Structures are given as structure tokens and as C-alpha cells.
From TrEMBL:
It comes from the Eukaryota. Residues 1-21 are annotated as: Disordered. Residues 1-18 have a biased composition (Basic residues). This is Uncharacterized protein.
Amino acid sequence: MLKKVRKKKKRSHKRAKRTNTPYQWEKFRKVRNKCNTAVENAKTDYYKTLSDKIMNEPVNSKNWSKMVKSLFGRQHKEIPLLKVNDEIIDDREKMANIFNVYFSDQSNIDESNVHLPDIEKFTSELSTIEITEKDVEDILLRRKLLDLIA
């Protein structure tokens, strides 16, 4: 459907450019508007179908993750520039130091009258540890889920 509409739009545009008559330009604008509406409707239908699949159909974690990524799109990994005192900072290490200074200055703790309690030294030894195959599987499964989310 979209392919036909886009092809019609392209032909109509060529014809309008070639003839350069008001009638052909008006005809092109109508076809263009229909094409844009069809594209928007197709996008809406696509996202609605995809979100319905995510919400209602049972899918494995790999397919679910793939669908969510296609729904939300890829996120930019690029760190935006930072402006400090009318100076643009693009070096990651400088940015980290600026944020470190800023956030460490947000709290000042008065340690002048602080006395730490005496805590007896505690030592313990782990004499035995039992790990079952099920424990390892559970940990690996949780790790896999965390990787999919991140």
C-alpha cells in the first residue's frame, strides 16, 4: 500500500515539475498529503501492534528485548558537551572532575565533635560452603536478564 502511494507521489511530483501548471501542483499537494497521512497511519499501526505483542503475547526474553528496542529505538551513547563558566568542555575526564567537585561541594559534614564508638574486632572464618547446580543456574539466569535490560 505505502509503496503504491509513494510511487504515485513521486510521479505526481515529476509531472508537476515538468508541466509547472497550478493544476498539477495542486494535484501533487493532494497526493503528497495522502502519502504523508498513509505513512503516519502505518507508523501508528506498527507501534500499536508491536506494543500489543509486548504486553499480551508470551515471548522469550530475547524476542521481548528485540521488540522493546525496536519500539523505543536505539539510544545515543554520545555524552553531551558541558558548558562551565562560558567554556565548552568535551573531555570526559574533565567532565568527571567537574561533576566530582560539584557534588562533593554539596554536602559539608562537621566532624569536629564526632567520636566513633569502640567496636570490638570481629573475625570469622567460612568453614564450609555449599553451592548447588540450581544456585549457579539461578545466578546465570539473573545475569542474563540484567544484560538484556542494560
